[in-house]
Amino acid sequence: MEGSTQNVSPTRPKLQGYDFYREVLGSPKYVVAPMVDQSELAWRTLSRRYGAQLAYTPMINAKMYANNKRNGYHRPLIIQFCANDPEQLLASAKALEAHCDAVDINLGCPQDIAKRGHYGSFLQDEWDLIYKLINTLHTNLSVPVTAKCRVFPSLEKTVEYAKMLERAGAQIITCHGRTREQRGHNTGLADWAKIRAVKQAVSVPVFANGNILTHADIARCLAETGADAVMSAEGQLYNPALFVPSPSSPSGGLHPRHADLALEYLDIVSRHKTPTPPSGIKGHLFKLLRPALAREIDLRDALGRLRGPDLAPYYDVVREMKRRMDRDAEAEETATEGGFLHWVAQPYVRPLPVENETHVEEPPATVAKRPHSGRTPDPEDDDEVKRVRHGDVGQMLAPATALVA
């Protein structure tokens, strides 16, 4: 339940697999992904209001984490770490195990900083190290360990990889159906067939990640993959109401007015004692308001110039956007190319990569993205949104517990 707080009792038995999924997490179907600078407390609070049943913290670098104890975290909550040193990972995870329901290991980040830092998907060829990372936490923590990974080009290798993660002790496997090379302009489609194969091969719960643009995609994904839940990153950032059904909507889901969502988000930020980084606030507003920013150039430029933690100028931009969108709605302007009105929250549809530009296996026929709107893609966007713009995770972890509060 949104806003509930608790601490894990050290005497509570550590449940595993489906017992953990059902009894501790409450059998969630709608999951908000771990996102650097984006799945902070304020966003998780907004997400829970609109149907999210489980949320992850932003990725924390175990090497840079400082023990800074604090109580009172919204639950259920999974804390995600990236790491390549089992002992460093264990020390950091031990410091936070009493404040979460599980610890997740990031094995999926495809960004350049992950390559330089030697973590995320750039560990996926080092199975002995991955096994040790997971097994060290599985053996020594009072809470379960889970893992989020990407697929290999080969279905057979993907399945063997997932089996290894389970043997190591992962109690939930989140499978992002894209390869390490599918990112940025080459993101392309996630392969649900590989997720289905993983689900059939392991005995622990599997979360599916990739290709979720609208609410209707959720049911299709669950049906085609057999996964226990759907995790969304990019889709949920553009419409935090992604998980809310709306039978009268062509997309099957709710699409509130984006300026109203932005104001609600700012209200949450203003009420929380845990500070929200200005970069995170601005990032959320650019995504929420994206359908109208191409039209309202002055507001786009004004938002881009904003700096610092003072919320007043952010409110000014969003309130003016709301005034203009309410005006357009009253004038009954026509829908945009993608079928959505420009004043409502909606998915961002990136162009598919040009053939032969990257190796992408044939995707399932039923999961096709709609045509690109013609807007220039944001080069920092990625389906996992696991970017670190400042080049140093540590800069976003002061105090580190601000991410998990």
UniProtKB/TrEMBL annotation:
Q: What class of enzyme is it?
A: oxidoreductase
One MF term in the entry's GO annotations: tRNA dihydrouridine synthase activity
Q: Which GO terms describe its biological process?
A: mRNA processing
Note the PROSITE patterns from the entry.
Answer: UPF0034 (PS01136)
**Which stretches make up the DUS-like FMN-binding domain?**
32-272
* Region of interest (Disordered), residue spans: 359-394
Reactions listed under catalytic activity = 5,6-dihydrouridine(17) in tRNA + NADP(+) = uridine(17) in tRNA + NADPH + H(+); 5,6-dihydrouridine(16) in tRNA + NAD(+) = uridine(16) in tRNA + NADH + H(+); a 5,6-dihydrouridine in mRNA + NAD(+) = a uridine in mRNA + NADH + H(+); 5,6-dihydrouridine(16) in tRNA + NADP(+) = uridine(16) in tRNA + NADPH + H(+)
Q: Which cofactor does it need?
A: FMN
EC number per UniProt = 1.3.1.88
SUPFAM superfamilies in UniProt: FMN-linked oxidoreductases (SSF51395)
Q: Which UniProt keywords apply?
A: Flavoprotein, FMN, mRNA processing, NAD, NADP, Oxidoreductase, tRNA processing
Q: Name one Pfam family in it.
A: Dus
Q: Provide the family line.
A: Belongs to the Dus family. Dus1 subfamily.
The name on file for this protein is tRNA-dihydrouridine(16/17) synthase [NAD(P)(+)]
